[in-house]
Write a structure and sequence with these properties.
The chain contains two helices and 14 strands. It is an alpha+beta fold. Strands 3, 6, 7, 8, 9, 10, 11, 12, 13 and 14 form a ten-stranded antiparallel beta sheet that branches. The protein has a two-stranded antiparallel sheet with strand order 1-2. A hairpin with a 3-residue loop joins strand 8 and strand 9.
Length: 299
């Protein structure tokens, strides 16, 4: 008699087929087992994805920690450098103060005399109280020293700013020779080749090959470029900071008023235009409009 609470399952075909009979309880158990397996597999996949995500977060966190460690190392290096500078300033402060004390000790009546301790007295203090007072004095001295160091650092910053400004001015100075040649006349008093009397020469005369390039002694802006009866073809360059240079008797001019020129850039060629006895370059340097000796700036 077939059980109405069971299910049959036939596997195969023909005579080789077999029939299996599964009860309701067995079927329910199988369904529960498969459900548990599915739930377990789903939970495993979920946990696996969570672990992968956590591994990514851990890797990113390690990278951030590595970057922060590098930042801390850089800050530590800067702090050590600052400590070294502070120690140097403290040593300098101690040296200056020791020199001051030596100078005071060498005052009138101080040298060559030794004071004999013939009289002793005064208020006495317990050793512990004296130590506390000494610690307090040291703390006050340290605070004062910190203030002195901060003042010294500010002074150094001001000095650095001044030096940086001077560096910029020096970079603007006309420091290279404007032409290769022979110096025929310097700055100062000379006999005039035209009147044979003593006159003051405001620049340098440099004999060069006709047509040789004349270059800017420093970078700047061309403020004059033209022809004058005395100087012939002339170019004047303003270098800023009150510095300017003049190039006269040029054969040709290669720049115009308003042009910006770099150090070593061609301004024209050696010539014999204007009032001159032969091909050469007349070169002047002006500081705040006053002609000065160009040799002071040349390398």
């Amino acid at each position: 008699m077939r059980d109405h609470h069971s299910f049959s399952l036939r596997i195969g075909y023909g005579e080789n087929s077999r029939e299996f009979r599964v009860g309701r309880t067995g079927l329910l158990t199988t369904v529960i087992v498969f459900a548990l397996l599915f739930f377990g597999l789903t939970q495993f996949l979920y946990d696996y994805r969570e672990n992968i995500s956590k591994l990514r977060d851990l890797r990113a966190l390690r990278e951030r920690v590595s970057e922060q460690n590098l930042t801390l190392y850089n800050l530590h290096s800067k702090f050590e450098s600052l400590e070294t500078e502070v120690e140097r300033l403290r040593a300098l402060d101690a040296r200056v103060r020791s020199l001051v004390r030596i100078n005071e000790s060498l005052g009138p009546g101080a040298a060559g005399k030794k004071v004999r301790q013939t009289g002793l007295g005064g208020l006495e203090t317990q050793e512990t109280a004296a130590q506390a007072r000494l610690d307090r004095l040291l703390d006050l001295r340290f605070e004062q020293l910190k203030k002195d160091v901060l003042v010294d650092v500010k002074d150094l910053e001001v000095i650095c700013e001044v030096l940086d400004g001077r560096r910029i001015v020096l970079e603007s100075a006309p420091s290279i020779w404007p032409v290769r040649g022979i110096l025929s006349s310097g700055f100062g008093v000379r006999l005039s080749p035209f009147t044979d009397t003593k006159v003051f020469h405001h620049g340098l005369d440099i004999i060069g090959r006709p047509g040789a390039p004349v270059v800017a002694a420093s970078g700047g802006v061309v403020v004059r470029s033209g022809y004058e009866s005395l100087f012939g073809n002339i170019v004047v360059v303003d270098h800023g900071y009150g510095l300017s240079t003049l190039y006269a008797h040029l054969g040709e001019r290669a720049v115009a008023t308003g042009d910006f020129v770099s150090k070593g850039e061609s301004l024209g060629t050696v010539g014999a235009t204007g009032r001159t006895t032969g091909p050469h370059l007349h070169y002047e340097v002006h500081v705040n409009g006053l002609a000065v000796n160009p040799s002071r700036f040349l390398d």
